Amino acid sequence: MKHLPKHLQPRWRYLAVAIETWPDAGVGRRAFQRELWYAGQNLLGDPGSADADLRVMRFELEDGSGGAIVRVRRGEVDTARAAIACVDEVDDHPVGLRISGVSGSVAACSESYLGDPAPSSTQREVAFDGAELSARRRNGAVDVDTPTGWVGATVHDTE
């Protein structure tokens, strides 16, 4: 089978997606890909989802923060952004997604927008709501492990 000439081959754009969730969330690449497909299909319908062709090229998530690179067709960047914005949970774990940027290659996307997709976090004991609880701190945000689940806080909330 012959390859298509270069001028007929599809052109791609790569979206850098910053991901944030609770530190103990078990979110994997496959589950994230599935949620992207569902979001695209629910928002854009079958033809629109096929036109956008959302595909996860890279996925890293560690201690509740990380990043992904999502490939989309060149003319479908805006619709892909809308579909990604519709994802609010993966495998029953709430997630926050933010598009950091758009690039023409995976390498440029990774270098320009993801840099270090998994910033370091530290675990320590904090006084929160009058009790000593375990917490993880990263980039000015604090995730406090309470008996009823994780609670998002700031550094000022724990002092």
From TrEMBL:
The record's annotation in SUPFAM superfamilies points to: Rnp2-like
Give its localization: Cytoplasm
Q: Does the keyword tRNA processing apply?
A: yes
Enumerate the UniProt keywords alphabetically.
Cytoplasm, Endonuclease, Hydrolase, Nuclease, tRNA processing
Output the InterPro entries linked to this UniProt entry: Pop5/Rpp14/Rnp2-like, Rnp2-like_sf
Catalytic activity of the protein:
Endonucleolytic cleavage of RNA, removing 5'-extranucleotides from tRNA precursor
Q: What is its EC number?
A: 3.1.26.5
Spell out the GO cellular component terms annotated for this protein, sorted alphabetically and separated by semicolons. Answer: cytoplasm; ribonuclease P complex
Q: Which domain of life is it from?
A: Archaea
Q: What is its main location?
A: cytoplasm
Query: What biological processes does GO assign it?
Result: tRNA 5'-leader removal
Question: What are the GO MF terms of this UniProt record?
Answer: ribonuclease P activity
Q: Which family does it belong to?
A: Belongs to the eukaryotic/archaeal RNase P protein component 2 family.
Function as written in the Swiss-Prot or TrEMBL entry: Part of ribonuclease P, a protein complex that generates mature tRNA molecules by cleaving their 5'-ends.
The entry describes its oligomerization and partners as: Consists of a catalytic RNA component and at least 4-5 protein subunits.
This protein is called what? Ribonuclease P protein component 2
Which gene is transcribed and translated to give this protein? rnp2
